[in-house]
């Protein structure tokens, strides 16, 4: 238990209303896949474009991760294996959630293929300032178009991934200078097929703790969400999204599933809905 | 003889049952606040030394896993792959599991407890399967071959189940020239250190490995250790990172856990 912290206000955690339990879930499909988007990061607080920059979760983000673990615990979810990115906000979210589940011992595979979308030369820039500089329409295009990437990161940008030791083993031509959602999917999909899918087929219950866009990529892959819809699909932070897949790894539509997708979020449905609507107004210049 | 690979051990720091002075073994107790700090401190020492870890190994027990994660985080290497195995678990303490250390001394006498704690091949009495602390009740051991699941272990037994992991998994990584970090427990570290240092059966049980202080070995391509003048007796090849006096004091403190009065 966290020392000296006031308990969260009722309605802030989504806990206590178990809409879904593993016993219900297991009547749908064969395989379990849980997706978890990391919570608030330090740069969310500063309203800066993050991408591959390795910022930490904020205090609130850490609490969101712990809460996610509790939500899974409440639903009696057990896990066999987990995947995450190279980025600490996702890894930490994973470790905090696993600790709540008493599952810190399960194997974890980290891969840059699950990283957030790489935000090119926008990385590090304040969102409101960027909007003032380039205009609402251009920024919206970079943020929410399917195939238009932000400008490639400049060679002298301090946030260039070539300066980051975690990417020293990636061949230069694979190292992105900027990504759209389309190119993010291009590197998530093979990883899902080659590395994650075989575990699911073995009957392992899989948790993937990752980022808004790498999870959008996975959801698009799983549910075949159309391009114009996936860009606007908000996957709320810190809310486990449970998928049940059939033997062919196709998702089975779950009761209480979210709009456009087959998976269902854990927790109080009202709380979940409020969270889904919550990601807004970050780029509106003040 | 030139350096081909680096092997770094870190014994997890103070646990909740260290504080309560209870024999722990395989019980999955957490780190105390102090232990969390020791893990972070270990990572800071790794960073200060300029060690770039390629791969980490740890046990199934959260006090070691959290030490591993916190140390890597403090060393700015949180993205390093971490492999967890029951084979790096602490020695399983059999029937002493869950018992207070000083009470056990009062009950059985210091000599008997010393034998159970520090003999090479005399294990504590077996833990009954009905005991709530028996690992047979835990999901994390569900995939183990039943004959691998211990009711008790002496150090010799611990070594026997650690070394296959060394041979099959850790040694090949070192042979490939990797810098390896092992975040584990007093006895699982003793197992590997015994082999590297060539320590005898009667010396190894008394080797105190300070907590939270990285122990570094440089190995040649045949995984023979390179000697160092910085080694602290009885070690010839391993050197501790950090403050030498603190290291000596910490080793003494572990010895004193069963001193009564």
Give a topology summary.
The complex is a heterodimer of chains A (286) and B (261).
Chain A: H1 22-25, E1 31-37, H2 42-45, H3 59-74, E2 81-84, H4 88-100, E3 108-110, H5 127-134, H6 136-144, H7 181-201, E4 206-210, H8 212-223, H9 227-230, E5 241-245, E6 251-252, E7 264-265, H10 269-276
Helix pairs in contact in A: 3-4, 5-6, 7-8
Chain B: E1 5-11, H1 16-19, H2 33-49, E2 55-58, H3 62-74, E3 82-84, H4 101-108, H5 110-118, H6 155-175, E4 179-184, H7 186-197, E5 215-219, E6 239-240, H8 244-255
Parallel strand pairs in B: 1-4, 2-3, 2-4
Antiparallel strand pairs in B: 1-5, 5-6
Structure in words:
The complex is a heterodimer of chains A (286) and B (261). Chain A is of the alpha/beta class and 286 residues long. Chain A is built from 10 helices and 7 strands. Chain A has helices at 22-25, 42-45, 59-74, 88-100, 127-134, 136-144, 181-201, 212-223, 227-230, 269-276, and strands spanning 31-37, 81-84, 108-110, 206-210, 241-245, 251-252, 264-265. In chain A, strands 1, 2, 3, 4, 5, 6 and 7 form a 7-stranded mixed sheet that branches. In chain A, strand 5 (241-245) and strand 6 form a beta hairpin. The longest helix of chain A has 21 residues, at 181-201. Chain B is an alpha/beta fold and 261 residues long. Chain B is 37% helix and 10% strand. Chain B has a 6-stranded mixed sheet. In chain B, helix 2 packs across helix 3 and helix 6 crosses helix 7 (186-197). Chain B is globular and about 50 Å long. In chain B, 46% of the residues are buried. The model of chain B has no long low-confidence stretch (mean pLDDT 94). The chains are: A alpha/beta (286), B alpha/beta (261). The A-B interface holds A 3, 78, 86-88, 91-92, 95, 99, 102, 104-110, 165-166 and B 28, 33, 52, 60-62, 65-66, 69, 73, 78-84, 139-140.
């Amino acid at each position: 238990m966290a020392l000296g912290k006031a308990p969260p206000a009722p309605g802030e955690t989504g806990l206590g209303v178990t809409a879904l339990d593993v016993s219900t879930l297991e009547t749908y499909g064969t395989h379990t896949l849980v997706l978890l988007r990391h919570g608030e990061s330090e740069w969310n607080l500063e309203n800066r474009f993050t991408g591959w920059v390795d910022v930490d979760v904020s205090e609130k983000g850490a609490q969101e991760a712990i809460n996610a673990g509790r939500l899974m615990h409440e639903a009696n979810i057990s896990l066999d294996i987990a995947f995450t990115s190279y980025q600490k906000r996702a890894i930490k979210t994973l470790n905090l959630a696993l600790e709540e589940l008493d599952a810190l011992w399960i194997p974890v595979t980290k891969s840059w293929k699950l990283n957030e979308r790489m935000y090119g030369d926008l990385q590090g820039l304040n969102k409101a300032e960027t909007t003032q500089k380039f205009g609402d329409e251009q920024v919206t295009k970079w943020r929410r178009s399917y195939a238009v990437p932000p400008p490639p990161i400049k060679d002298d940008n301090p946030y260039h991934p070539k300066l980051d030791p975690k990417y020293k083993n990636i061949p230069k031509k694979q190292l992105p200078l900027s990504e759209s959602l389309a190119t993010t999917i291009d590197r998530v999909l093979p990883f899902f097929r080659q590395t994650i899918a075989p575990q699911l087929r073995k009957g392992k219950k899989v948790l993937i703790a990752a980022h808004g866009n790498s999870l959008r990529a996975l959801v698009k892959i799983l549910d075949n969400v159309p391009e114009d819809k996936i860009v606007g699909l908000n996957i709320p932070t810190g809310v486990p999204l449970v998928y049940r897949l059939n033997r062919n790894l196709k998702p089975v539509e779950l009761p209480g599933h979210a709009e456009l997708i087959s998976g269902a979020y854990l927790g109080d449905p009202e709380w979940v809905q409020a969270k889904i609507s919550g990601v807004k107004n970050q780029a509106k210049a003040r | 003889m030139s350096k081909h690979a680096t092997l770094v051990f870190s014994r997890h720091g103070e646990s909740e049952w260290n504080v309560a002075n209870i024999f722990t073994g395989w019980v999955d107790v957490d780190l105390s606040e102090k232990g969390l700090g020791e893990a972070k401190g270990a990572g800071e020492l790794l960073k200060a030394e300029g060690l770039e870890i390629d791969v980490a190994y740890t046990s199934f027990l959260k006090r070691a896993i959290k030490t591993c994660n916190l140390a890597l985080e403090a060393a700015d290497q949180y993205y390093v792959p971490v492999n967890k195995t029951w084979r790096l678990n602490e020695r399983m303490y059999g029937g002493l599991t869950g018992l207070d250390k000083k009470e056990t001394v009062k009950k059985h006498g210091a000599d008997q407890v010393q034998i159970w704690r520090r003999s090479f091949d005399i294990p504590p009495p077996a833990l009954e399967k009905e005991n709530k602390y028996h690992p047979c009740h835990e999901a994390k051991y569900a995939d183990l071959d039943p004959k691998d699941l211990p009711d008790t272990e002496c150090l010799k037994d611990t070594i026997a189940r650690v070394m296959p992991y060394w041979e099959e998994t850790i040694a090949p990584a070192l042979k490939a020239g990797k810098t390896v970090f092992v975040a584990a427990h007093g006895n699982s570290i003793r197992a590997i250190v015994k082999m590297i240092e060539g320590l005898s059966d009667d010396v190894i049980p008394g080797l105190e490995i300070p907590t939270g202080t990285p122990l570094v070995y440089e190995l040649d391509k045949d995984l023979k250790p390179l000697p160092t003048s910085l080694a602290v007796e009885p070690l010839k090849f391993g050197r501790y990172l950090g403050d030498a006096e603190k290291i000596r004091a910490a080793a003494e403190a572990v010895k004193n856990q069963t001193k009564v009065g």
